[in-house]
Amino acid sequence: MTDQDDYNIMIDEFEKGMELKEKQKTIWEHILNSIEYKQGEEKYITGDQIKECKSSWKGVKNQFEPRLLCKQDSEEKRPEIFKKYGIHILSVKNGTYLLTKENIYIPLPKFFSPPEKVEKISDSLLLEIGDSETSMLDNLNYNGVLEKILGEGNIKGPFLGGRHRCTFKTTLGDKEIEIKGSQYETDGCYETDNQVCLVEAKSIQMNSFNIRQLYYPFRSVYDKVKDKKKITALFVFKDKQSNIHIYHYKWRNPLVMTDIVLENYYCFTF
Asked: Rounded distance, CA 96 to CA 177, Å?
């Protein structure tokens, strides 16, 4: 075997090793490397930049859908490379995201009090159909649970169905950022004489949530009603035993995204 043969084998093994290493990377590792992200910096990234990264990606190409890659609705959904670098991703415009070191996830503390049994007072047969977030909220509303939490009846809604876009300025950490045309959805929005109630609901067990899920609809409502009505924000999920956990939040300063506090907690079962 000649020196040239040895060299060719070495190059071949090196290239195979590099190919294997590339395949072992996560997509987000590849993206961050491609945009030359430096650990600790805050940086904007666009959907177009994410799509451009797939041309040099060795894995499955159809995984480069920005909306899916950037949809990280809980701490558990964060990629390992994000945890390593201490960054989070936040939608700030239609197709533009902020890589930020500020924590945007709210942990859902565990409470061990037994659930309160709710007697069904509605005679609707339709409430027994389905197991979706909407079905869960309909049962909470028409069987008096929302009235109990809000402390008043005459509940109207739900409102704000479908997708909406919001534009506002807010403080995140020590910086002011602008949200411009970013999309949000609400699972439930209700109005009484004195309150507006916003609900983000999940039909599965949750341990945390992305503050954007409540804050973006909250700001849209706040910018409209200001101090005319109290705004009640609820995060709701159903666990494996079909117990419904309800976390009641409020913002101390509505203009500061992460200035959120837990006001109350409820647990119900039907």
From this structure: 13
